[in-house]
Design brief:
Elements (H helix, E strand, L loop, with lengths): L1 H27 L7 E5 L2 E5 L18 E3 L7 E2 L12 E3 L7 E2 L12 E3 L21 E3 L21 E3 L21 E3 L11 H4 L6 E3 L10 H11 L4 E3 L2 H4 L26 H5 L4 H10 L12 H77 L2 H16 L12 H7 L6 H22 L11
Parallel strand pairs: 2-3, 3-5, 4-6, 5-7, 7-8, 8-9, 9-10, 10-11, 11-12
Antiparallel strand pairs: 1-2
Length: about 450
Amino acid sequence: LKSLVVSLVLSAFAVIASAAADHDGAVAKVCPKLCTCDIVEGLKRADCSHENLINPYTDVPTGVEILDLSINKISAIEDDDFKDYTNLVKLFLSENSIQSISLNAFSTMRNLEILDLSHNRLQRLHENMFEYNEKLVDLNLSNNNFMTLYNQPLLISSSIMHLDLSDCKIPQLYERTFAGMPALRTLELTNNVMITLAKEPLGQLKNLRVLNLLDNQWKCDSESVRATVNWLRKRVSSLQIEQCFLSPFKSKAMFEKIELDPRQQVPRQEVSIDQVWGGSSTTEKYWNSLQDKTCSYNDAQRDPERKQTCEDFIECQKRFSELYHAFLAKVDKQGQANKFNHQLAVTLLTCGVFIGVLFGSFFTYSLLYLAKKCRKSDDERPPSATMRQLRREFRERNNFEHSRLNESPPPDQLSRRTTTNLTPQELSQIYRNHEHTRQFLVDLFSKRQPRYVRNN
C-alpha cells in the first residue's frame, strides 16, 4: 500500500512538473524577428510577408490565428509544415512560387476559414485536400495554372462558399468540375480562356448566387453560350458576362475597334473651367440656398412645434451667416497675408541680388587696383637697386661671408707662405691656379650662379 501511495505521489509530481515546463515553454515563446505580431479583429496575427522565405517555417508561436506568408519564395508545402498550427483561422500564401501541396498539409487546421493561394504556380490540387477543413469558407486560387482539368471534382468540400478561379487559364468546365462543392455561393471565373459554356457544370450548384464570367474568349454569335446565359439568369441573382449575351437582340460579332472618321473630327477648343465645374464654391452655393429660405408661422394657430421649428431655423440661419462671413474674412486675411509674404520675398530677393552685385563689383575693382599698383611700383624701381637687392639675396642665401672666398689673399700672407724663392712665371701660374680654384668653389656653392665680377 505504501509503495502504491508513493508511486501515485511521484506520478502527480511528474505531471505537475511537465505542466510547469510546458507553461514555461509557452511563456518563453517570442515573436520572431522576421515577423510582425499584433491583434487584428480580436485575432492574433503574425505578418511574415516580404521576407524571401523559401519554406513555411517561421518559428511563430503555435497560438497564432492569422498567419501571412505572402510575397515570399516558398515553392512547396509539406504535410508537417503546419501540423502544430491548429488555431489558424486565416492563412495567406499568395504571391509565392508554390508548385506542389501535400495531401495533409492543412489537415490539422480544423478552424481554418480563409485560405489564399493566389498568384502561385499550382496546376492541380488533390480533390480531398480540404476534407478535414470543415470551417473553410473562402478559397482563393486565382492567378494559377489550371489549364488541364478533367471530368472529375476539382475539390471536395462541403463548406466552401466562395471560390475564386480567375486568371487560371481554364479552357473548359466539365460536368463534374464543381460536383464536390455543393455549398458554393460565389464563383469567380473571370479572365480565363473558355469558349463554350455548358449547363451541366453549373447545374449542380443549387446555392450559387453570384457568378462572374467576364473577359473570356466568348463569341457573341454562340447560340449555346447564349442559351446557357439565359438559363443562368433565372437561377442566380448576380450574373456578370459580356453585354452582348445579356441583350435580347442577337449580335453576329463584337466590335473590335471603333475609329472616328478624320473628316468628321471637330478641333478641340479651350473651355472655361467655370462652365464645367461651376464658378461658385460649395460654401457659396449652400449660403445662397439657405438665404433664399424663409420661415413663418401664425400665433393664432397655436402650433408650438411649428413655432419652435421656425425659431430654430432662424437661429441656424443667423449662426450660419456669422460663420460664413467669418470664413470669408479669414480667407481674405489669408489671401492678404500670402500676398504680403510674396511681395516681401520678392523684395528680399531683389535686395540680396543688388547687394551681392555691389559687393562683388567693389571687391573686383579693389583687386584690379592693387594688382595695377604693384605692377607700377615694380616698373619704377631702378635697375641698380634691383641688382643690389638680388646680390644681397644671393649672399644671404648662400652664407658665404664667413669663408672669405670673395677676397684675395693679402700680399704679406703670400710672402709669409712662400718658403722658397719662386720665379715670376711660377708665381703667376700659382696665382692663376688660385683664381681658378676660388672661382670653381664660388660657382660650386652658389649653385652655378653668374660669374661674380670683383671690383679690383
